[in-house]
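Fold it.
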Amino acid sequence: MYKLFKRIIDIAASFSGIILLSPLLLLIILVIKLDSQGPILFKQKRIGLYKKTFMIYKFRTMRTDTPADMPTHLLDDPASFITKSGAFMRRTSLDELPQLFNILFGQMSVVGPRPALWNQYDLIEARDEVNANSIRPGLTGWAQINGRDELAIDVKAKLDGDYVKRMSIWFDIQIFFKTIFSVLRHEGVKEGSDFNIHN
């Protein structure tokens, strides 16, 4: 029952967010175009509900010659690929805002496990074991506010499984507001191959 209610909340929240944040979205688009050559949006194949793939949307924060389908923290020198505006957007998670459209289209939820890359087979398999591939991936999630990039695959999957078991409107509200504080403190963000845990 909550899954249906959750979807209604997702539609209302994403639509309202797009409308209210439209001036900010337009400003970011302008900054990206002035900062570097290339498309405004970065699109990447991710794993969604029941392991169906979809294209996730982000504001482009890296140069167009960045290796594809590789987590940023696995690059030898990620700073050399990140644009000037991209560094700020990544610190503040503003690059994630286009995922409001993924939520509106039904590919994601506001809260849920972060969508794995299509080739993160270890994470996908670990999530199968805890039933975490049976719900829509989220803009933020329980694992996101408990370590984010700093988590090992098995720990991340366990937290995703815990979320599935505890999923409720109150738990989602708790995660949402904790996410805001986590973003403001820049918690759990790692960039560079000196950190070897897959995101």
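The CA atoms of residues 68 and 146 lie 27 Å apart.
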